[in-house]
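Here is one chain, start to finish.
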Amino acid sequence: MSAPASDDPLLIGARRFHSRLLTGTGKFKDLEETRLASAAAGSEIVTFAVRRMNLGQDPTQPSLLDALPPERYTLLPNTAGCYDAAAAVRTCQLARELLDGHTLVKLEVLGDARTLYPNVSETLDAAEQLVREGFEVMVYTSDDPIIAKRLEEIGCIAVMPLAAPIGSGLGIQNRYTLLEIIENSKVPVIVDAGVGTASDATIAMELGCDGVLMNTAIAGARDPILMARAMRAAVQAGRDAFRAGRIPRKRCASASSPEEGLLG
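Its structure:
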C-alpha cells in the first residue's frame, strides 16, 4: 500500500508543505477575490510583487496581510518588474524590512518587457548576493538545465523554470528540458509560467515537477474561484499519477483481459 498524499510533503529548505500548488496575487479584481481564489486553490505559499502590493505602507489602502494573514499563508515576496541584479537585491531587502526579517523570497530578473523572459546573467549575480546575505532564494529561470544546476550550486533552495512565457497560457512547451532539470536537481523544481488550464498543471506534475506556481491562469479565467479549485485537483492528480507510475507507451494493443488461463 503506497503512502497517502498527506505523507508526501513538499519540502522547501527547512519548510514543509502539503499543497504543491503555489499561487500569485496579481490581476485579480480586488483583494477579496484574491483571498477567495487562494483558499479555493488550497495554496499554502502565495507570492506577491513587493513593488506593487500594499503591506501596510499606506494605511489608507487595503493591505495584503489582511486578506492573506501570515499565520495562515507563507508569503513569498517576489522581485517582479526588476531588470537588473541590483534592483532585485534592493527589493528583497525591502521585503525583509517590511515583513520583520522575512528571508524567503522569489527572485526574478527580467530581460525582456514583451516576453518577460529571464535575464540569466543578472539572475545569477542576484542569486549569489542574496544567498550571501542569508536569503532563502526560490528562483525563476529559463529551462536551461545548466543554468538550473548552477543556481542550485549557488545555494538557491528551489529552481522555477518557465514552461512557456509568463501569462501566455501556452502550456508545457519544453517537457524534455524540464525533465533534464528534474532528473538532475537535488532541490525542488517548480514550474513557473506558461500554465493555461488544469491539464497543463497535471502534465507538469506527471513529469515529476515538485510543484506548480500560477497566477494568470487563475486570475484571468472567466470564473477565477472555480479555476482555482480545478487547478488544486489537477496538481494533486498529476502528483498521484507520477507517484503511481504510468504504463509504458507501446505501438500495439495489449488486452485488458488476456486469453491465457481461461477456464474451460
